[in-house]
Design a protein that fits this description.
Helices cover 28% and strands 29% of the residues. By secondary structure, it is an alpha/beta fold. α3 (103-111) packs across α4, α3 (103-111) runs parallel beside α5 (142-154) and α5 runs parallel beside α6.
Length: 234
């Protein structure tokens, strides 16, 4: 397996006055090319902090992060910006679409700054929204808006897709449609994907499941078979 990203002994300490909060305590993580990883853990376990650090949105207090042959540890803000722009796609719990732009225009915003973008209509087609190109966010359901957000994230053809609770604001039926879109991106485009969730059921659609507890990756499971999103229920 080819390693896309490696994080070793990651710590993150937040200081508020004299109070120190240890969000991560020596976490290790590997992401391999073309795999889908689910990161499970309760609120406050450190999983979102870990995602933000490997995505270049935050920096570790100590430890090392390497993307392929590029050392991210110690990178300045301009280097991290280039890393995020060229290599990472983000999907969050809330969609952050621009209300005055259509689905296609929301996706096009990203393609204008990407090195090798997909056509916005193609990206929306991958997530099953070919018939919704000209619809504004207010005309879309929550699940459709989240799929627009996924299309926006993949339109620049990132090496890594990082999803933080992408189904957290959705009911189970709609959430399964969103997970199916992430699954399709991973399988069809070969994009390495990591999905953070507290929903243990989602782990069965991954190649590997990382269990995060008390700021560390406490346990890793490998699935011999991946279930499709359509097979999930919660």
């Amino acid at each position: 397996m080819i390693t896309t990203l490696t994080a070793r002994n990651i710590t993150k300490v937040y200081r508020t006055g004299e109070v120190e909060v240890h969000a991560l305590r020596g976490a290790d993580l590997d992401l391999y090319e073309g795999e889908l990883v689910v990161i499970l853990g309760p609120s406050g376990s450190g999983k979102s902090t870990l995602l933000n650090i490997i995505g270049g949105l935050d920096t570790a207090t100590s430890g090392t992060v390497r993307f392929r042959d590029h050392q991210l540890t110690g990178a300045d803000e301009s280097e991290l910006t280039r890393y995020r722009r060229d290599h990472v796609g983000f999907v969050f719990q809330f969609y952050n679409l621009i209300p005055s732009l259509t689905a296609e225009e929301n996706v096009a915003l990203v393609t204008e700054i990407a090195e090798r973008p997909l056509d916005p209509a193609e990206a929306l087609g991958i997530v099953g929204l070919s018939e919704r190109l000209d619809h504004f966010p207010a005309q879309l359901s929550g699940g459709e808006q989240q799929r627009v957000a996924i299309a926006r994230a993949i339109a620049k053809q990132p090496d890594i897709l990082l999803c933080d609770e992408p189904t957290g604001a959705l009911d189970s039926e709609t959430g399964i449609l969103v997970l199916d879109a992430i699954d399709q991106v991973n399988r069809d485009l070969g994009t390495t994907a990591a999905v953070i969730t507290h929903n243990t059921v989602i782990g069965s659609m991954a190649d590997r499941v990382l269990h995060v507890a008390d700021g560390c990756v406490a346990r890793i499971e490998k699935n011999t078979e991946r279930r499709t999103a359509a097979e999930l229920a919660w």
